[in-house]
Write a structure and sequence with these properties.
Chain lengths: 313, 313
Protein backbone atom coordinates (compact mmCIF):
# COMPACT_ATOMS: atom_id res chain seq x y z
CA UNK A 1 0.00 0.00 0.00
CA UNK A 2 1.52 3.28 -1.16
CA UNK A 3 1.69 6.55 0.72
CA UNK A 4 2.03 8.99 -2.16
CA UNK A 5 0.68 9.60 -5.66
CA UNK A 6 2.19 11.44 -8.62
CA UNK A 7 -0.09 13.37 -10.96
CA UNK A 8 1.05 14.76 -14.32
CA UNK A 9 -1.02 17.01 -16.57
CA UNK A 10 0.64 17.00 -19.97
CA UNK A 11 0.08 20.22 -21.92
CA UNK A 12 1.47 21.49 -25.20
CA UNK A 13 4.08 23.76 -23.59
CA UNK A 14 4.58 22.38 -20.09
CA UNK A 15 3.81 19.39 -17.93
CA UNK A 16 2.26 20.30 -14.58
CA UNK A 17 3.24 17.84 -11.93
CA UNK A 18 2.08 17.17 -8.41
CA UNK A 19 3.01 14.90 -5.53
CA UNK A 20 0.03 14.08 -3.31
CA UNK A 21 -0.54 12.16 -0.12
CA UNK A 22 -3.34 9.61 -0.09
CA UNK A 23 -5.82 12.17 1.25
CA UNK A 24 -5.18 14.41 -1.74
CA UNK A 25 -3.06 17.02 0.01
CA UNK A 26 -0.37 18.53 -2.20
CA UNK A 27 3.09 17.62 -0.92
CA UNK A 28 4.91 19.21 -3.84
CA UNK A 29 4.06 20.89 -7.15
CA UNK A 30 6.29 21.76 -10.08
CA UNK A 31 6.47 22.04 -13.87
CA UNK A 32 8.74 20.76 -16.59
CA UNK A 33 8.80 21.88 -20.23
CA UNK A 34 7.05 19.73 -22.84
CA UNK A 35 9.53 18.84 -25.57
CA UNK A 36 7.35 18.19 -28.61
CA UNK A 37 10.21 17.74 -31.11
CA UNK A 38 10.62 14.37 -32.87
CA UNK A 39 6.95 13.51 -32.52
CA UNK A 40 7.09 14.15 -28.80
CA UNK A 41 9.39 11.20 -28.10
CA UNK A 42 11.02 12.89 -25.08
CA UNK A 43 7.84 13.74 -23.25
CA UNK A 44 7.26 10.52 -21.34
CA UNK A 45 10.97 9.91 -20.56
CA UNK A 46 11.22 13.52 -19.27
CA UNK A 47 8.23 12.97 -16.98
CA UNK A 48 9.63 9.64 -15.78
CA UNK A 49 13.03 11.24 -15.07
CA UNK A 50 11.36 13.98 -13.07
CA UNK A 51 9.36 11.47 -11.04
CA UNK A 52 12.35 9.20 -10.42
CA UNK A 53 14.40 12.20 -9.36
CA UNK A 54 11.67 13.37 -6.96
CA UNK A 55 11.53 9.89 -5.45
CA UNK A 56 15.29 9.94 -4.92
CA UNK A 57 15.30 13.50 -3.47
CA UNK A 58 12.62 12.56 -0.94
CA UNK A 59 14.35 9.27 -0.14
CA UNK A 60 11.16 7.37 -0.95
CA UNK A 61 11.23 3.78 -2.08
CA UNK A 62 9.16 2.61 -5.05
CA UNK A 63 6.69 0.89 -2.70
CA UNK A 64 5.85 4.27 -1.17
CA UNK A 65 4.22 5.32 -4.44
CA UNK A 66 0.66 4.11 -5.02
CA UNK A 67 0.67 5.14 -8.64
CA UNK A 68 1.12 7.72 -11.36
CA UNK A 69 -1.90 9.46 -12.87
CA UNK A 70 -1.57 11.12 -16.27
CA UNK A 71 -3.84 13.66 -17.95
CA UNK A 72 -3.28 13.77 -21.70
CA UNK A 73 -4.73 16.06 -24.40
CA UNK A 74 -6.24 13.34 -26.57
CA UNK A 75 -8.55 10.32 -26.46
CA UNK A 76 -7.31 7.58 -24.12
CA UNK A 77 -8.60 4.01 -24.20
CA UNK A 78 -9.09 1.64 -21.27
CA UNK A 79 -5.58 0.21 -21.75
CA UNK A 80 -4.01 3.66 -21.33
CA UNK A 81 -3.17 4.07 -25.00
CA UNK A 82 -3.54 7.55 -26.46
CA UNK A 83 -4.91 7.65 -29.98
CA UNK A 84 -3.20 10.79 -31.28
CA UNK A 85 -2.49 13.94 -29.29
CA UNK A 86 -1.91 16.66 -31.87
CA UNK A 87 -0.54 19.24 -29.40
CA UNK A 88 2.16 16.82 -28.27
CA UNK A 89 3.06 15.52 -31.71
CA UNK A 90 1.96 12.04 -30.68
CA UNK A 91 0.45 9.35 -32.83
CA UNK A 92 -0.77 6.20 -31.08
CA UNK A 93 1.16 6.20 -27.80
CA UNK A 94 0.99 3.56 -25.04
CA UNK A 95 1.24 5.98 -22.10
CA UNK A 96 0.46 3.52 -19.32
CA UNK A 97 2.80 0.80 -20.58
CA UNK A 98 5.67 3.24 -21.27
CA UNK A 99 5.47 4.93 -17.89
CA UNK A 100 5.25 1.62 -16.04
CA UNK A 101 8.37 0.45 -17.86
CA UNK A 102 10.27 3.69 -17.15
CA UNK A 103 9.24 4.10 -13.50
CA UNK A 104 8.20 0.65 -12.34
CA UNK A 105 5.08 2.20 -10.84
CA UNK A 106 1.43 1.42 -11.75
CA UNK A 107 0.14 4.13 -14.08
CA UNK A 108 -3.30 5.20 -15.21
CA UNK A 109 -4.07 7.74 -17.94
CA UNK A 110 -7.10 9.74 -18.96
CA UNK A 111 -8.15 12.54 -21.29
CA UNK A 112 -7.19 15.88 -19.74
CA UNK A 113 -10.66 17.45 -19.87
CA UNK A 114 -12.20 14.33 -18.31
CA UNK A 115 -9.50 14.14 -15.66
CA UNK A 116 -10.04 17.81 -14.78
CA UNK A 117 -13.70 17.01 -14.10
CA UNK A 118 -12.59 14.33 -11.66
CA UNK A 119 -10.31 16.87 -9.98
CA UNK A 120 -13.07 19.47 -9.63
CA UNK A 121 -15.43 16.85 -8.18
CA UNK A 122 -12.84 15.66 -5.70
CA UNK A 123 -11.27 18.90 -4.49
CA UNK A 124 -12.80 21.78 -6.43
CA UNK A 125 -16.09 23.49 -7.27
CA UNK A 126 -17.86 20.17 -7.80
CA UNK A 127 -17.35 18.84 -4.27
CA UNK A 128 -20.52 17.24 -2.98
CA UNK A 129 -21.87 16.36 -6.43
CA UNK A 130 -21.33 12.87 -7.77
CA UNK A 131 -22.96 13.59 -11.13
CA UNK A 132 -21.59 16.66 -12.82
CA UNK A 133 -20.52 18.15 -16.10
CA UNK A 134 -17.33 20.20 -16.18
CA UNK A 135 -17.46 22.80 -18.93
CA UNK A 136 -14.12 24.44 -19.61
CA UNK A 137 -14.57 27.72 -21.47
CA UNK A 138 -11.09 28.41 -22.79
CA UNK A 139 -9.77 28.98 -26.29
CA UNK A 140 -12.11 26.12 -27.16
CA UNK A 141 -14.66 24.35 -24.99
CA UNK A 142 -13.62 21.19 -23.19
CA UNK A 143 -15.88 18.95 -21.23
CA UNK A 144 -15.74 16.18 -18.69
CA UNK A 145 -18.70 14.16 -17.49
CA UNK A 146 -19.05 12.31 -14.23
CA UNK A 147 -21.97 10.01 -13.53
CA UNK A 148 -22.31 8.40 -10.11
CA UNK A 149 -18.73 9.35 -9.31
CA UNK A 150 -17.25 7.76 -12.43
CA UNK A 151 -15.89 9.32 -15.60
CA UNK A 152 -17.76 8.90 -18.86
CA UNK A 153 -14.88 8.32 -21.24
CA UNK A 154 -16.95 7.14 -24.20
CA UNK A 155 -16.62 4.15 -26.51
CA UNK A 156 -13.79 5.81 -28.49
CA UNK A 157 -12.44 8.10 -25.77
CA UNK A 158 -14.52 10.98 -27.12
CA UNK A 159 -16.96 11.22 -24.19
CA UNK A 160 -17.62 14.76 -22.98
CA UNK A 161 -16.75 16.52 -26.24
CA UNK A 162 -19.53 18.98 -25.54
CA UNK A 163 -17.71 21.81 -27.29
CA UNK A 164 -18.61 20.04 -30.50
CA UNK A 165 -22.25 19.50 -29.76
CA UNK A 166 -24.38 21.04 -32.51
CA UNK A 167 -26.38 23.93 -31.05
CA UNK A 168 -27.08 26.31 -33.94
CA UNK A 169 -28.46 25.72 -37.39
CA UNK A 170 -27.62 28.25 -40.13
CA UNK A 171 -24.04 28.91 -38.99
CA UNK A 172 -22.05 29.89 -42.09
CA UNK A 173 -18.54 29.38 -40.64
CA UNK A 174 -17.02 25.99 -39.89
CA UNK A 175 -15.65 24.95 -36.51
CA UNK A 176 -12.14 23.47 -36.18
CA UNK A 177 -13.75 20.03 -36.18
CA UNK A 178 -15.26 20.63 -39.61
CA UNK A 179 -18.89 20.85 -38.50
CA UNK A 180 -20.95 24.04 -38.37
CA UNK A 181 -22.82 25.35 -35.34
CA UNK A 182 -20.76 23.74 -32.55
CA UNK A 183 -21.13 25.08 -28.99
CA UNK A 184 -17.45 26.06 -29.05
CA UNK A 185 -18.14 28.56 -31.86
CA UNK A 186 -20.16 30.70 -29.43
CA UNK A 187 -19.26 29.91 -25.84
CA UNK A 188 -15.45 29.77 -25.89
CA UNK A 189 -13.19 32.80 -25.53
CA UNK A 190 -12.75 32.89 -29.30
CA UNK A 191 -16.47 32.30 -29.74
CA UNK A 192 -17.33 35.33 -27.63
CA UNK A 193 -14.97 37.48 -29.68
CA UNK A 194 -16.70 36.23 -32.82
CA UNK A 195 -20.12 37.09 -31.39
CA UNK A 196 -18.79 40.48 -30.31
CA UNK A 197 -17.48 41.35 -33.76
CA UNK A 198 -20.72 40.30 -35.41
CA UNK A 199 -22.73 42.39 -32.96
CA UNK A 200 -20.55 45.46 -33.36
CA UNK A 201 -20.88 45.23 -37.13
CA UNK A 202 -24.65 44.90 -36.94
CA UNK A 203 -25.22 48.04 -34.89
CA UNK A 204 -24.21 51.69 -34.74
CA UNK A 205 -24.72 51.92 -30.99
CA UNK A 206 -21.75 53.35 -29.10
CA UNK A 207 -19.73 50.82 -27.11
CA UNK A 208 -16.44 50.88 -25.23
CA UNK A 209 -15.71 47.66 -27.10
CA UNK A 210 -15.06 49.72 -30.22
CA UNK A 211 -11.83 50.95 -28.59
CA UNK A 212 -9.05 48.48 -27.90
CA UNK A 213 -8.78 44.73 -28.32
CA UNK A 214 -11.92 42.65 -28.08
CA UNK A 215 -11.52 39.76 -25.65
CA UNK A 216 -13.92 37.72 -23.55
CA UNK A 217 -12.66 39.65 -20.52
CA UNK A 218 -13.24 43.01 -22.23
CA UNK A 219 -16.80 41.97 -23.07
CA UNK A 220 -17.69 41.02 -19.49
CA UNK A 221 -15.88 44.05 -18.05
CA UNK A 222 -18.02 46.20 -20.35
CA UNK A 223 -21.15 44.31 -19.23
CA UNK A 224 -20.32 45.23 -15.64
CA UNK A 225 -19.97 48.89 -16.51
CA UNK A 226 -23.36 48.88 -18.21
CA UNK A 227 -22.35 48.85 -21.88
CA UNK A 228 -25.51 48.07 -23.88
CA UNK A 229 -23.79 46.34 -26.80
CA UNK A 230 -21.74 44.20 -24.43
CA UNK A 231 -24.97 43.15 -22.73
CA UNK A 232 -26.40 42.10 -26.10
CA UNK A 233 -23.28 40.04 -26.75
CA UNK A 234 -23.47 38.43 -23.32
CA UNK A 235 -27.15 37.80 -23.96
CA UNK A 236 -26.41 35.92 -27.15
CA UNK A 237 -23.59 33.99 -25.44
CA UNK A 238 -25.91 33.06 -22.56
CA UNK A 239 -28.78 32.10 -24.85
CA UNK A 240 -26.65 29.63 -26.81
CA UNK A 241 -24.67 28.26 -23.86
CA UNK A 242 -27.84 27.87 -21.79
CA UNK A 243 -29.43 25.97 -24.64
CA UNK A 244 -26.40 23.69 -24.85
CA UNK A 245 -26.47 23.05 -21.10
CA UNK A 246 -30.18 22.26 -21.37
CA UNK A 247 -29.55 19.70 -24.10
CA UNK A 248 -26.94 18.02 -21.92
CA UNK A 249 -29.23 18.09 -18.88
CA UNK A 250 -32.07 16.45 -20.82
CA UNK A 251 -29.72 13.57 -21.60
CA UNK A 252 -27.86 13.21 -18.29
CA UNK A 253 -29.80 15.09 -15.58
CA UNK A 254 -26.56 16.03 -13.75
CA UNK A 255 -26.62 17.48 -10.23
CA UNK A 256 -24.33 20.33 -11.29
CA UNK A 257 -22.57 22.13 -14.10
CA UNK A 258 -19.09 23.21 -13.05
CA UNK A 259 -17.81 26.00 -15.26
CA UNK A 260 -14.08 26.62 -15.58
CA UNK A 261 -11.51 27.91 -18.07
CA UNK A 262 -10.37 31.45 -18.76
CA UNK A 263 -13.85 32.77 -19.55
CA UNK A 264 -15.07 31.65 -16.10
CA UNK A 265 -12.90 34.35 -14.53
CA UNK A 266 -15.81 36.67 -15.33
CA UNK A 267 -17.46 34.98 -12.33
CA UNK A 268 -21.08 34.41 -11.37
CA UNK A 269 -22.27 37.04 -13.85
CA UNK A 270 -21.97 34.32 -16.50
CA UNK A 271 -24.76 32.39 -14.83
CA UNK A 272 -27.06 35.42 -14.94
CA UNK A 273 -26.88 35.08 -18.70
CA UNK A 274 -26.82 31.28 -18.99
CA UNK A 275 -29.47 30.30 -16.43
CA UNK A 276 -32.58 31.93 -17.99
CA UNK A 277 -31.89 30.26 -21.32
CA UNK A 278 -31.16 26.95 -19.59
CA UNK A 279 -34.54 27.09 -17.87
CA UNK A 280 -36.31 27.93 -21.11
CA UNK A 281 -34.97 24.89 -22.93
CA UNK A 282 -34.45 22.20 -20.31
CA UNK A 283 -36.75 19.24 -19.60
CA UNK A 284 -38.60 20.33 -16.45
CA UNK A 285 -37.55 17.22 -14.49
CA UNK A 286 -33.89 18.13 -14.99
CA UNK A 287 -34.22 21.80 -14.08
CA UNK A 288 -32.63 21.34 -10.64
CA UNK A 289 -29.00 21.37 -11.83
CA UNK A 290 -26.77 23.74 -9.85
CA UNK A 291 -24.35 26.08 -11.66
CA UNK A 292 -21.02 26.53 -9.90
CA UNK A 293 -17.60 27.89 -10.78
CA UNK A 294 -14.57 25.64 -10.98
CA UNK A 295 -12.02 26.50 -8.30
CA UNK A 296 -8.85 24.55 -9.10
CA UNK A 297 -7.83 26.51 -12.21
CA UNK A 298 -4.78 24.97 -13.84
CA UNK A 299 -4.40 22.46 -11.01
CA UNK A 300 -7.58 20.55 -11.86
CA UNK A 301 -5.58 18.18 -14.05
CA UNK A 302 -3.04 17.13 -11.43
CA UNK A 303 -5.73 16.69 -8.77
CA UNK A 304 -7.80 14.62 -11.18
CA UNK A 305 -4.73 12.57 -12.13
CA UNK A 306 -4.19 11.71 -8.47
CA UNK A 307 -7.85 10.76 -8.15
CA UNK A 308 -7.51 8.46 -11.16
CA UNK A 309 -4.90 6.55 -9.19
CA UNK A 310 -7.09 6.32 -6.09
CA UNK A 311 -10.02 5.12 -8.23
CA UNK A 312 -8.02 2.32 -9.82
CA UNK A 313 -6.99 0.93 -6.42
CA UNK B 1 -28.72 -17.50 -3.20
CA UNK B 2 -31.94 -17.48 -5.21
CA UNK B 3 -32.70 -19.46 -8.30
CA UNK B 4 -35.36 -17.27 -9.89
CA UNK B 5 -36.18 -13.60 -10.50
CA UNK B 6 -39.49 -11.85 -11.00
CA UNK B 7 -39.68 -8.87 -13.36
CA UNK B 8 -42.69 -6.55 -13.56
CA UNK B 9 -43.13 -3.78 -16.14
CA UNK B 10 -45.92 -1.55 -14.88
CA UNK B 11 -47.83 0.17 -17.68
CA UNK B 12 -50.96 2.33 -17.69
CA UNK B 13 -53.27 -0.48 -18.80
CA UNK B 14 -51.48 -3.70 -17.90
CA UNK B 15 -48.53 -5.00 -15.90
CA UNK B 16 -46.28 -7.30 -17.91
CA UNK B 17 -44.71 -9.91 -15.68
CA UNK B 18 -41.95 -12.43 -16.14
CA UNK B 19 -40.35 -15.22 -14.16
CA UNK B 20 -36.70 -15.75 -15.09
CA UNK B 21 -33.96 -18.14 -14.13
CA UNK B 22 -30.60 -16.66 -13.14
CA UNK B 23 -29.28 -16.91 -16.71
CA UNK B 24 -32.13 -14.74 -17.94
CA UNK B 25 -34.20 -17.49 -19.57
CA UNK B 26 -37.94 -16.89 -19.37
CA UNK B 27 -39.62 -19.55 -17.23
CA UNK B 28 -43.06 -17.94 -17.39
CA UNK B 29 -44.63 -14.76 -18.76
CA UNK B 30 -48.06 -13.26 -18.11
CA UNK B 31 -50.00 -10.02 -17.69
CA UNK B 32 -52.37 -8.58 -15.13
CA UNK B 33 -54.55 -5.48 -15.55
CA UNK B 34 -53.37 -2.19 -14.04
CA UNK B 35 -56.07 -0.85 -11.74
CA UNK B 36 -55.44 2.88 -11.67
CA UNK B 37 -58.55 3.82 -9.63
CA UNK B 38 -58.09 5.43 -6.20
CA UNK B 39 -54.72 6.91 -7.11
CA UNK B 40 -53.48 3.49 -8.19
CA UNK B 41 -53.59 2.06 -4.68
CA UNK B 42 -54.29 -1.51 -5.90
CA UNK B 43 -51.40 -1.73 -8.34
CA UNK B 44 -48.62 -2.89 -6.04
CA UNK B 45 -50.87 -5.24 -3.97
CA UNK B 46 -52.13 -6.79 -7.23
CA UNK B 47 -48.56 -7.39 -8.43
CA UNK B 48 -47.58 -8.82 -5.06
CA UNK B 49 -50.60 -11.16 -5.06
CA UNK B 50 -49.70 -12.36 -8.54
CA UNK B 51 -46.10 -13.03 -7.50
CA UNK B 52 -47.07 -14.78 -4.27
CA UNK B 53 -49.56 -16.90 -6.20
CA UNK B 54 -46.93 -17.87 -8.80
CA UNK B 55 -44.55 -18.86 -6.01
CA UNK B 56 -47.24 -21.07 -4.45
CA UNK B 57 -48.21 -22.63 -7.82
CA UNK B 58 -44.62 -23.55 -8.55
CA UNK B 59 -44.08 -24.80 -4.99
CA UNK B 60 -41.12 -22.46 -4.61
CA UNK B 61 -40.00 -21.20 -1.23
CA UNK B 62 -39.19 -17.52 -0.66
CA UNK B 63 -35.48 -18.34 -0.60
CA UNK B 64 -35.70 -19.56 -4.19
CA UNK B 65 -36.38 -16.00 -5.32
CA UNK B 66 -33.36 -13.73 -5.74
CA UNK B 67 -35.45 -10.61 -6.08
CA UNK B 68 -38.18 -8.64 -7.76
CA UNK B 69 -37.35 -6.04 -10.41
CA UNK B 70 -39.87 -3.33 -11.20
CA UNK B 71 -40.03 -0.99 -14.21
CA UNK B 72 -42.20 2.04 -13.49
CA UNK B 73 -43.32 4.92 -15.76
CA UNK B 74 -41.88 7.76 -13.68
CA UNK B 75 -38.67 8.96 -12.06
CA UNK B 76 -37.32 6.53 -9.44
CA UNK B 77 -34.73 7.49 -6.84
CA UNK B 78 -31.97 5.33 -5.40
CA UNK B 79 -34.22 4.24 -2.50
CA UNK B 80 -36.80 2.86 -4.93
CA UNK B 81 -39.28 5.69 -4.38
CA UNK B 82 -41.24 6.89 -7.39
CA UNK B 83 -41.80 10.61 -7.54
CA UNK B 84 -45.14 10.72 -9.38
CA UNK B 85 -46.26 8.37 -12.14
CA UNK B 86 -49.08 10.17 -13.91
CA UNK B 87 -50.23 7.15 -15.95
CA UNK B 88 -50.69 5.09 -12.79
CA UNK B 89 -52.33 7.82 -10.73
CA UNK B 90 -49.42 7.70 -8.30
CA UNK B 91 -47.97 10.52 -6.26
CA UNK B 92 -44.80 9.79 -4.27
CA UNK B 93 -44.83 5.99 -3.92
CA UNK B 94 -42.25 3.84 -2.09
CA UNK B 95 -42.25 0.92 -4.56
CA UNK B 96 -39.28 -0.96 -3.13
CA UNK B 97 -40.41 -0.73 0.47
CA UNK B 98 -44.02 -1.64 -0.30
CA UNK B 99 -43.15 -4.67 -2.41
CA UNK B 100 -40.64 -5.92 0.15
CA UNK B 101 -43.32 -5.67 2.84
CA UNK B 102 -45.94 -7.43 0.69
CA UNK B 103 -43.72 -10.22 -0.67
CA UNK B 104 -40.82 -10.50 1.76
CA UNK B 105 -38.45 -10.49 -1.23
CA UNK B 106 -35.70 -7.93 -2.01
CA UNK B 107 -36.99 -5.50 -4.62
CA UNK B 108 -35.34 -2.98 -6.93
CA UNK B 109 -37.14 -0.42 -9.08
CA UNK B 110 -36.18 1.72 -12.05
CA UNK B 111 -37.69 4.04 -14.63
CA UNK B 112 -39.30 1.96 -17.40
CA UNK B 113 -37.41 3.55 -20.30
CA UNK B 114 -34.10 3.13 -18.47
CA UNK B 115 -34.89 -0.45 -17.49
CA UNK B 116 -35.79 -1.27 -21.10
CA UNK B 117 -32.31 -0.10 -22.13
CA UNK B 118 -30.83 -2.56 -19.65
CA UNK B 119 -33.02 -5.31 -21.12
CA UNK B 120 -31.93 -4.54 -24.69
CA UNK B 121 -28.27 -4.51 -23.65
CA UNK B 122 -28.61 -7.82 -21.84
CA UNK B 123 -30.77 -9.87 -24.18
CA UNK B 124 -31.79 -7.66 -27.10
CA UNK B 125 -30.43 -5.55 -29.94
CA UNK B 126 -27.79 -3.99 -27.71
CA UNK B 127 -25.98 -7.23 -26.86
CA UNK B 128 -22.23 -6.77 -27.03
CA UNK B 129 -22.34 -3.02 -26.35
CA UNK B 130 -21.74 -1.80 -22.82
CA UNK B 131 -22.31 1.87 -23.69
CA UNK B 132 -25.53 2.46 -25.53
CA UNK B 133 -28.50 4.74 -25.86
CA UNK B 134 -31.92 3.15 -26.24
CA UNK B 135 -34.25 5.43 -28.18
CA UNK B 136 -37.88 4.34 -28.04
CA UNK B 137 -39.86 5.94 -30.85
CA UNK B 138 -43.45 5.43 -29.71
CA UNK B 139 -46.30 7.85 -29.08
CA UNK B 140 -43.57 9.95 -27.48
CA UNK B 141 -39.80 9.36 -27.37
CA UNK B 142 -38.36 7.54 -24.39
CA UNK B 143 -34.70 7.05 -23.72
CA UNK B 144 -32.41 4.97 -21.59
CA UNK B 145 -28.68 5.44 -21.32
CA UNK B 146 -26.09 2.88 -20.34
CA UNK B 147 -22.47 3.81 -19.71
CA UNK B 148 -19.95 1.08 -18.96
CA UNK B 149 -22.78 -1.36 -18.32
CA UNK B 150 -24.57 0.83 -15.80
CA UNK B 151 -27.76 2.87 -16.09
CA UNK B 152 -27.56 6.66 -16.06
CA UNK B 153 -30.58 7.47 -13.90
CA UNK B 154 -29.76 11.13 -13.32
CA UNK B 155 -29.65 13.26 -10.19
CA UNK B 156 -33.47 13.55 -10.11
CA UNK B 157 -34.37 10.35 -11.92
CA UNK B 158 -34.70 12.27 -15.19
CA UNK B 159 -31.65 10.78 -16.93
CA UNK B 160 -32.21 9.73 -20.52
CA UNK B 161 -35.15 12.07 -21.21
CA UNK B 162 -33.84 12.53 -24.71
CA UNK B 163 -37.34 13.00 -26.14
CA UNK B 164 -37.24 16.40 -24.49
CA UNK B 165 -33.88 17.49 -25.75
CA UNK B 166 -34.18 20.78 -27.65
CA UNK B 167 -33.34 20.18 -31.30
CA UNK B 168 -35.19 22.86 -33.27
CA UNK B 169 -35.39 26.60 -32.84
CA UNK B 170 -38.41 28.41 -34.27
CA UNK B 171 -40.96 25.69 -33.44
CA UNK B 172 -44.31 27.45 -32.95
CA UNK B 173 -46.12 24.58 -31.16
CA UNK B 174 -45.39 23.47 -27.59
CA UNK B 175 -44.43 19.93 -26.59
CA UNK B 176 -46.32 18.13 -23.78
CA UNK B 177 -43.49 19.15 -21.46
CA UNK B 178 -44.15 22.85 -22.12
CA UNK B 179 -40.96 23.53 -24.10
CA UNK B 180 -40.80 24.11 -27.85
CA UNK B 181 -38.63 22.21 -30.30
CA UNK B 182 -38.21 18.90 -28.40
CA UNK B 183 -36.97 15.83 -30.30
CA UNK B 184 -40.27 14.09 -29.51
CA UNK B 185 -42.14 16.68 -31.59
CA UNK B 186 -40.51 15.31 -34.75
CA UNK B 187 -39.23 11.79 -34.18
CA UNK B 188 -42.12 10.07 -32.37
CA UNK B 189 -45.10 8.45 -34.09
CA UNK B 190 -47.15 11.57 -33.40
CA UNK B 191 -44.22 13.74 -34.46
CA UNK B 192 -44.02 12.03 -37.84
CA UNK B 193 -47.75 12.57 -38.36
CA UNK B 194 -47.25 16.24 -37.56
CA UNK B 195 -44.36 16.49 -40.05
CA UNK B 196 -46.48 14.66 -42.63
CA UNK B 197 -49.43 17.03 -42.28
CA UNK B 198 -47.18 20.07 -42.54
CA UNK B 199 -45.51 18.67 -45.65
CA UNK B 200 -48.79 17.76 -47.33
CA UNK B 201 -50.11 21.27 -46.70
CA UNK B 202 -46.98 22.89 -48.12
CA UNK B 203 -47.07 21.09 -51.45
CA UNK B 204 -49.49 20.17 -54.24
CA UNK B 205 -47.52 17.09 -55.24
CA UNK B 206 -49.61 13.95 -55.45
CA UNK B 207 -49.12 11.45 -52.64
CA UNK B 208 -50.82 8.27 -51.51
CA UNK B 209 -50.73 9.83 -48.06
CA UNK B 210 -53.56 12.13 -49.10
CA UNK B 211 -55.91 9.10 -49.02
CA UNK B 212 -56.61 7.39 -45.70
CA UNK B 213 -55.27 7.94 -42.22
CA UNK B 214 -51.78 9.34 -41.81
CA UNK B 215 -49.67 7.24 -39.45
CA UNK B 216 -45.94 6.66 -39.05
CA UNK B 217 -46.47 3.24 -40.64
CA UNK B 218 -48.33 4.76 -43.61
CA UNK B 219 -45.48 7.23 -44.15
CA UNK B 220 -42.78 4.55 -44.25
CA UNK B 221 -44.92 2.20 -46.34
CA UNK B 222 -45.29 5.06 -48.84
CA UNK B 223 -41.53 5.66 -48.74
CA UNK B 224 -40.98 2.04 -49.72
CA UNK B 225 -43.34 2.35 -52.67
CA UNK B 226 -41.49 5.42 -53.91
CA UNK B 227 -43.88 8.20 -52.86
CA UNK B 228 -41.98 11.49 -53.27
CA UNK B 229 -43.79 13.41 -50.53
CA UNK B 230 -43.34 10.52 -48.10
CA UNK B 231 -39.61 10.62 -48.88
CA UNK B 232 -39.53 14.33 -48.08
CA UNK B 233 -41.25 13.62 -44.76
CA UNK B 234 -38.83 10.81 -43.96
CA UNK B 235 -36.00 13.14 -44.94
CA UNK B 236 -37.11 15.76 -42.47
CA UNK B 237 -37.63 13.11 -39.77
CA UNK B 238 -34.14 11.70 -40.42
CA UNK B 239 -32.51 15.14 -40.50
CA UNK B 240 -33.87 16.07 -37.08
CA UNK B 241 -33.45 12.67 -35.43
CA UNK B 242 -29.91 12.34 -36.81
CA UNK B 243 -29.08 15.76 -35.42
CA UNK B 244 -30.44 14.73 -32.03
CA UNK B 245 -28.43 11.50 -32.07
CA UNK B 246 -25.34 13.53 -32.99
CA UNK B 247 -25.85 15.84 -30.03
CA UNK B 248 -26.10 12.85 -27.71
CA UNK B 249 -23.03 11.23 -29.26
CA UNK B 250 -20.96 14.39 -28.78
CA UNK B 251 -21.77 14.22 -25.08
CA UNK B 252 -21.55 10.47 -24.43
CA UNK B 253 -19.75 8.83 -27.37
CA UNK B 254 -21.84 5.65 -27.04
CA UNK B 255 -20.91 2.44 -28.86
CA UNK B 256 -24.45 2.08 -30.20
CA UNK B 257 -27.88 3.59 -30.59
CA UNK B 258 -30.58 0.96 -30.15
CA UNK B 259 -33.84 2.10 -31.71
CA UNK B 260 -37.13 0.60 -30.55
CA UNK B 261 -40.79 1.50 -30.16
CA UNK B 262 -43.63 1.30 -32.67
CA UNK B 263 -41.91 3.49 -35.27
CA UNK B 264 -38.93 1.12 -35.34
CA UNK B 265 -41.13 -1.51 -37.00
CA UNK B 266 -40.33 0.37 -40.21
CA UNK B 267 -36.96 -1.38 -39.91
CA UNK B 268 -33.50 -0.51 -41.18
CA UNK B 269 -34.90 2.01 -43.65
CA UNK B 270 -35.05 4.43 -40.70
CA UNK B 271 -31.28 4.41 -40.51
CA UNK B 272 -30.97 5.32 -44.20
CA UNK B 273 -32.62 8.60 -43.23
CA UNK B 274 -31.03 9.13 -39.80
CA UNK B 275 -27.41 8.17 -40.51
CA UNK B 276 -26.47 10.87 -43.10
CA UNK B 277 -27.71 13.63 -40.81
CA UNK B 278 -25.97 12.03 -37.82
CA UNK B 279 -22.69 12.06 -39.72
CA UNK B 280 -23.15 15.67 -40.75
CA UNK B 281 -23.60 16.91 -37.20
CA UNK B 282 -21.56 14.57 -34.99
CA UNK B 283 -18.12 15.27 -33.53
CA UNK B 284 -15.80 13.24 -35.79
CA UNK B 285 -14.32 11.28 -32.86
CA UNK B 286 -17.76 9.95 -31.96
CA UNK B 287 -18.79 8.99 -35.49
CA UNK B 288 -18.29 5.27 -34.89
CA UNK B 289 -21.60 4.63 -33.13
CA UNK B 290 -23.53 1.67 -34.52
CA UNK B 291 -27.26 1.95 -35.23
CA UNK B 292 -29.23 -1.19 -34.41
CA UNK B 293 -32.87 -2.09 -33.97
CA UNK B 294 -34.25 -3.14 -30.61
CA UNK B 295 -35.40 -6.76 -30.65
CA UNK B 296 -37.28 -7.37 -27.41
CA UNK B 297 -40.34 -5.26 -28.20
CA UNK B 298 -42.70 -5.10 -25.24
CA UNK B 299 -40.59 -7.59 -23.29
CA UNK B 300 -37.63 -5.20 -22.88
CA UNK B 301 -39.05 -3.99 -19.56
CA UNK B 302 -39.35 -7.40 -17.92
CA UNK B 303 -35.91 -8.46 -19.12
CA UNK B 304 -34.44 -5.21 -17.83
CA UNK B 305 -36.24 -5.63 -14.52
CA UNK B 306 -34.66 -9.04 -14.08
CA UNK B 307 -31.26 -7.56 -14.92
CA UNK B 308 -31.81 -4.86 -12.27
CA UNK B 309 -32.05 -7.66 -9.72
CA UNK B 310 -28.88 -9.36 -10.96
CA UNK B 311 -27.04 -6.01 -10.88
CA UNK B 312 -27.99 -5.33 -7.28
CA UNK B 313 -26.62 -8.71 -6.11
Amino acid sequence: MGKYIFGADVGGTSVKMGLFDMAGMVVDKWEIPTRTENAGEHILPDIADSINQKIAENRYIKEDIAGIGMAVPGPVDAAGVVNKAVNLGWGVTPVKETMEKLCGIPTVAGNDANVAALGEMWKGGGQGYDSLVLVTLGTGIGGGIIVDGRLVTGADGAGGEIGHMHVMDDEPEACNCGCKGCLEQYGSATGIVRLAKRNLERTDKPSTLRDGEITAKAVFDAVRSGDAVAKDIAGEFGEILGKGFAMIASVLNPAAFVVGGGVSKAGDILFEYIRPSFEKYVFPGAKGAKFVLATLGNDAGIYGSAKLVLDMM
